[in-house]
Write a structure and sequence with these properties.
By secondary structure, this protein is mainly α. The chain is built from one helix and no strands. It is rod-shaped, with a radius of gyration of 29 Å.
Length: 95
């Protein structure tokens, strides 16, 4: 039995280096592609979140209990991007 195992190992040995080389590069490429995809998706999400105008609205309160006095259910969400009740702050001390 032990001789069969040694025979198989000697038969497979010439193929181990190329297999390990290809496997290592495949894993490296998959990791880089995964990181690139995560970074790309994060940038897209950040661009979308920066379109939310709530912090510049005069109805925004900066209070975690009541974020907006007009539409508290959509404050600081994607639904607030085209909020029809948006009014820019007119008093510079409200920023």
């Amino acid at each position: 039995m032990l001789e069969v195992i040694f025979f198989l190992l000697r038969g497979i040995q010439p193929f181990l280096i190329p297999i390990c080389f290809i496997t290592a590069w495949t894993v490296t490429i998959l990791v880089v592609m995964s990181l690139w995809t995560a970074a790309r998706d994060s940038v897209a999400t950040a661009k979308l979140m920066h379109q939310i105008p709530c912090t510049g609205c005069q109805f925004f309160t900066d209070n975690y209990r009541l974020k907006c006095t007009v539409r508290p259910s959509i404050a600081n969400t994607e639904e607030a991007i085209d909020c029809r009740d948006y009014q820019p702050k007119t008093n510079p001390y409200l920023y």
